[in-house]
Amino acid sequence: MLELKEKYINPFTDFGFKKLFGTEMNKDLLMDFLNELLPIDGKITELNYLNPEQLGRSEADRNAVFDIHCKTDKEEYFIVEMQKAYQKYFKDRSIYYASAPVRNQGVKGEWDFQLKAVYTVSVLNFVFNEEDPNYYHTEVKLMDTQKKTVFYDKLTFIYLEMPKFNKTLDELETRFDKWLYVLKNLHKLQELPKKLQERIFKKIFKVAEIAKMTKEEHDEYEQNWKIINDNKNTMDAAIETAVEVAVENKAIAIAKNLLALGALTTEQIAQATGLTTDEIKAL
């Protein structure tokens, strides 16, 4: 059995994120988070969870599976995703995912093509824009590149790069700051800080307490961590192997250059490069 030392669940696990934001009994947490995140005209007062799996129209189409897919009382669609590790084409993926709720609004027969707004919110546990180390909140819409104005306001992409958010408790100024602080630090805390003594945050800490989970929830959370650890170990091993290969290839290249000069003995080249004398002779 995996030993869990934290008092509260880690939101950057599939189980933790969905327990906080993806259940009917906790949808007030998601609504509060989205209301603080988005400059929407009028607050979200109700939402309904939709099927997170959006099937392609044919067998050739690739399915899109979201962490959370929901629709508000204003008929606006939200995809809310937590991403633990870097993906090379993550921007492409978020565009592809947003296409599903856009496409699904199509109506058979006569239709004027009027669409409801679609928001994609990505909470990232990695940095994908290193140009500005302090710029952690990115909001993207379709823009007129000449006028520098919003061309279409019904398609919004929001990226929160959590490694860049480094405010301490004393530095929290807004309710949104508090949300980001909780998401990043929940699993590191042992109690609810005084600065977060608000109803919504009290509920988060209550919901996230590991000791109060059922056996089934505990087993699922443990399995999440096992997968995370296995993936990390696999990645670390791959990186270590790549580094070793690179070092060896560089040593071989140096050895070949030294052999071409003809100024050193095989033993001296082996000592300089870390290769064996047999490997030197084979070159």
Give me the secondary-structure category. alpha/beta
Q: Distance between termini?
A: 50 Å
**Count of helix runs:** 8
Can you count the beta strands? 8
Residue stretches low in confidence (pLDDT < 50, at least 5 long) are 55-64
Strand order of the largest sheet: 1-4-5-6-8-7
Could you give the order of the helices and strands? HHEEEEEHEEEHHHHH
Q: Tell me about the largest β-sheet.
A: 6 strands, mixed
Instruction: Report the β-strand fraction as a percent range.
Output: 15-25%
Report the principal-axis shape: extended
Q: Mean pLDDT, as a whole number?
A: 82
- How many structural units, i.e. domains? 2
Give the helix proportion (percent range). Answer: 40-55%
What is the gyration radius calculated from CA atoms?
25 Å
Write the layout of secondary structure elements.
Layout: H1 14-21, H2 27-37, E1 47-49, E2 53-54, E3 64-65, E4 68-72, E5 77-83, H3 90-103, E6 118-124, E7 137-144, E8 149-161, H4 175-185, H5 199-207, H6 215-261, H7 266-273, H8 277-282
Helix pairs in contact: 6-7
How would you describe what is shown here?
This protein is an alpha/beta fold. The protein folds into two domains: 199 residues, no CATH class; 70 residues, no CATH class. The protein is built from eight helices and eight strands; from the N terminus they run H-H-E-E-E-E-E-H-E-E-E-H-H-H-H-H. The protein has a six-stranded mixed β-sheet with strand order 1-4-5-6-8-7. It has a two-stranded antiparallel sheet with strand order 2-3. Helix 3 links the parallel strand 5 and strand 6. Helix 6 packs antiparallel against helix 7. The longest helix is centred in the last third of the chain and has 47 residues. The protein starts with 13 loop residues before the first helix and ends with a helix. 22% of the residues are buried. About 4% of the residues have low confidence.
